Amino acid sequence: MNKVRLPRTIARQPTRRDVNTLFRIYGDPRTNEFNPAGPMRSLVDAETTMARWIDHWVKNGFGMWAIAWVDRPSEVVGFGGLSFKPFGDEMKVNLGYRLGVEAWGRGLATELATAAIKFGFQTLHVQEIFALVRANHLASRKVLEKAGLTQFGTLDDVPGDAPSIVYRICAGQCDRN
What we know:
28% helix
């Protein structure tokens, strides 16, 4: 399924036509305040990221979505969804999202996270979904917790920085490991 209807937005498979919006959002210093890598530096970086996302869709049948308003479907306000991501030596299903500043404070990240989790459990039939967040990114942590994820541990994923907090949600009862 490459399109999901959320309460106020549509989550759809991204295309190369979305690359300028990807660069606008991911290149904005405000959307990268908690990203140790900082803002995306160039349109070429956005093209590389989009190619990786499209390849993930081709290989796995799911991936990051482009998020657009229901009443303005050509106006992409962010990206998010599920994708495979390395957590140390293991590949896990990861929930990620980034919205443009014009979409902040409206509850869209929580709607997106909730829809992605439902999609993961009901459509993909995964048993666990994980998310990584920087400890000081309180707004994103709140989104994850509203969507039902709980703290699971930490991951030393950025050399020289404090570890990220790992969140997890399970389709059923979570194992402790």
